[in-house]
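Lab notebook: predicted structure, single chain.

Context: the supervisor wants predicted structures on file for every construct in the current expression panel, including those that have not yet been purified. This is the next one on the list. No modifications to the sequence; it matches the entry in the shared construct table.
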Amino acid sequence: MPGAMERAHPARVYDYLLGGRDNYPVDRRAAEEGLRANPASRVPPRENRAFLRRVVGHLAGERGVRQFLDIGTGIPTSPNVHEVAQAVAPDARVVYVDNDPIVLAHAAGLLRGAPPGRTGYVDADLRDVERILASPQLRAVLDLDRPVAVVLVAIMHFVADADGPYEIVRRLLDAVPSGSYLALSHLTGDFDPDAWDRVAAIFARDGVTLRVRSRAEIARFFDGLDLLDPGLPLVTRWRPDAAVNLAATDAEVAVYGGVARKP
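Prediction complete. Output recorded below exactly as produced.
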């Protein structure tokens, strides 16, 4: 995969920041430069993973959700969505979507769902909504006539304004019925814009968009939906548990997250 080794990829940079080993020198270089630009860069990935775990547990346990579409899956870091969901509801079904060759290589591990649940993997870019929704792998696992939790955790900040991020989310939600949910988290520059501008410049050098957005811009993703309590806070304040890093400052966390129901 020579092309993959020449350019940093968000999934592999994220893996490195989480302490993983599935990354290349170019990813490690980008991550280390990002840490020099913003020494708190390890905090958002860790708190995002904790947010994801709490969200999936809540949706499967308290909201009765049995279908999950996790787009921008990243390199598997346990517990994954299907592990959390199927621990609560063994019949839960999960489809993962990503477009990185290392994630694809790990797809077999992502497909080890616990019976009677099922898992699937779609190799596609988030921007190609039609390909995702029409995928035989998705259709074999999910019933789009029944509620689905669309999970977009730490992915939409990699979508440039020119690529229509709000339209992408709307098209995904248009494909699922009333009673479905959107779970989304997103980097923000609200608390330290200069630091995130420096990080974005490093990603841009490798051809990767990093578009941090304000809380108001992130809230637009939830237009027309019913936000669950506590709304759209920093992820550490979304139904926190004992694993949350309460010592992290707002500038260190730098990620808003929320969950909303489609009426």
